[in-house]
Amino acid sequence: MRCLGLLLSLSLLWVLLIPGGNVARARMGESEETVALGGSFRSIGGLTQNFENLALFEKKKDAYLQSLLRLTGEGHSTDRMSCEVHLVSAFTYTSGGDREGGFGFGPDRVKTRYRAVDLSGDFMDHQENRSGTLWLDRLNCKVALPKADVTIGRQAITFGKAYFWNPLDLFLPFDPAQFDRDYKPGVDGLRIDIPLGLFSGLTVVSVLGRKLNLRNQYEDNRTAGASWFGSSVLVRGFTHYEGWDVSLQAGKVYGGWHVGGGLVGEIDSIQLRLEAARFWADEGPVFPGPDQVPLLDDNLTAVIGMGRHWPSSLDIQVECLFNGGGESDAITLGMQRAERGAVLHAGRVLAGVTVSYEVTPLVLGQLAVLQSQTDGSTQVQPTLRWSTSDNTELLLGASLNRGDRPTIGPQGTIEFKSEFGSYPHYFFAEFKGYF
Predict the structure, then answer these.
(1) Does residue 32 have a pLDDT over 80?
(2) Exposure of 241 by Cβ count < 10 A (0-12 exposed, 13-18 middle, 19+ buried)?
């Protein structure tokens, strides 16, 4: 029950400190009351079709079930101050145990990078097949000053406008293959937004984080802590010029230094996107072995994409990624870096395309395809989204992964031969409702 009492106390204290007004039973942003309470519930069940590799899978099939309850609150204590809190509880079951991982919803899959304070606790004793966890995903206050907005606390920070890959989105970005993007995880920091014009502005972000080990875990058991290696100080400027959105950003980020920029606009109804970032690594964790290969290395990441939306609701988006931190030949090393969040993918060059269409006003069909040009592996994600009511929806889908499968090396270690070929097939159904 570590930190559980602290989580509940902070949440209750925040609600009690908001003076006046009636409690609004509505989703966030839909109420003008002093306090707006809401949330969502979702339950996802999945089945994996595993390939034959005893080092990765013990059975041909594994089942997965997760139920998530998110309680959200937003309040205004004055005309200039507002606060936000997201409290999340998750129950997870998987027949494959810890080695199977999950579908990317629980805190274990959320990188602890840029989280200096551990605001999570178990309400159920963790076992091989099931776990119950409670955590604060957001907890922040925003003050509107005459010439700037200041937000402090655990908050979601998003930069960049690319579809699959965002080299500029540094703070807990979504995985390119993640199908559920309703809520972005928060990071612990201070954000200052300074408007410089109608479509121009300056953003200064300072985020606290700790240095993580090779398993993406805190190097110590302290509840709170920060290090210069794990923290970030970033300055971002943006403007609009001749129909194009232009952005530049630079600063200290996790494990090194970052400079990036983006350009987004349209030519004859075709949207064009270009984002690129250069990273210089400081000395950090290294993989065990005689070569002492570092987890983080200098690299260049760039994305170019285009897309179009037709009045018929047909939408097509295409992107190509140059992943300078990936590997052309050493796929195993690339997989190790990608699994630890050091790079976006294992390979150097990838392409992605997504096509969506409203079959009916209530049913949206989508097909996404990711392909590694480095090793030839492919991931195909068909999904069907059905709005069953105003506040509920059902999502059916799959993740089909093709490519060379991993093998067992002479020393009994896993040798990866391709990126997407290293994953089993997934089939899932998700029901979610908002209140």
Answers:
(1) no
(2) exposed
**Tens-digit pLDDT profile for residues 64-74:** 999 999 999 99
DSSP structural state of residue 119: -
Q: In whole angstroms, what is the distance from residue 301 CA to residue 220 CA?
A: 31
Tokens of 416: 């990866």
Per the structure, the complete domain to which residue 65 belongs is given by 4-434
Give yes or no for residue 20 having a pLDDT over 60: no
Q: What is the CATH number of the domain that holds 274?
A: 2.40.160.10
pLDDT of residue 122: 86
**What is the phi/psi pair of residue 136, to 5°?**
-90, 115
pLDDT digits (tens, 9 = 90+) for 329-345: 899 999 999 888 899 99
Number of folded domains in the chain? 1
Give which of 101, 104, 92 is closest to 57, Cα–Cα. Answer: 101
Residue located via tokens 């005893």: 54
Distance, CA of 286 to CA of 267 (rounded, Å)? 45
CA distances from 92 to 64, 136, 254 (A): 8, 17, 30
